[in-house]
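ok so i was messing around last nite and threw this chain in just to see what happens. nothing serious, just curious
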Amino acid sequence: MSRSSKKGPYVDIRLLGRIEDMNRASEKRVLRTCSRDSTIFPQMVGHTIAVHDARRHVPIYITENMVGHKMGEFAPTRLFRGHGGKKADKRGKMK
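result:
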């Protein structure tokens, strides 16, 4: 369920402040954050933000297409390793 339109999009105030400071100083560096629920704002375009996925920080380069999405969408928390594997191959050969 999305956030109320009356409240507006959510962004971590500390993260947005650090982005705006970097924009004023015209510097580029990787910012580390655990704020997966923050919405990507236009001020963030062109920066690399490392979003935590419960194990490590995944670096994400922000582009214009990402504006309006949540940061957690681009740092998956689960690793898909495929269906079955060797067991599925053995069952298929027996028939």
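not much to say yet. The chain has two helices and three strands.
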